[in-house]
Amino acid sequence: MAIPLMPPAQDGTRAGTLAGTLAIVLAAGQSSRTGAQHKLLAPDATGCPMLVRTLRNTLHSAAAHVLVLLPPNRAELAELTHALPEYGTRLSTHCVMDAADGLSASLRAGVRAAQAMPATSLLVCLGDMPLVPTHLLNALLYEQHTTQAPVVAAQRHNKPGNPVVWSSTEFAALLGVTGDQG
Q: DSSP characters for 61-108?
């Protein structure tokens, strides 16, 4: 399914967004396996940091709003989001104070934000997914929106993976996830 990508308006909105959809980008991990430099800061061949590439793909999707979940101790990650002013109020950040508790802390923070919106669906993206194209995000969003399925996930080798779109009917269950898992 081809979804036309429209440039954002001055206020950050754009045609083709699905009302009631929130995309969260989980970027609060410690990146402990990559040494001193956080992997989300790693540039691609064009010099674009991984997190910025992931955010641009997500911001071009049909999600009505994008929330980046960041750790409290990595100001340089938060600074990357300021490099994207063209998306206006459609992009926001949230500091996950208990990020050290693992991925579930970020997921719970994103679910609470979705509940506060209130969102009808939640697209969960990982910050280290710069090669996941916008058309895949849109396919997942539109599939969940059309079918009202409780969950729609990408698959690879017949196994579900990320990104995932959750219906609001599943938000309470997602709040019960603990540890370093989603």
A: SSEEEEEEEE-TT-HHHHHHHTT-GGGGGGEEEEE-TTGGG-HHHHHH
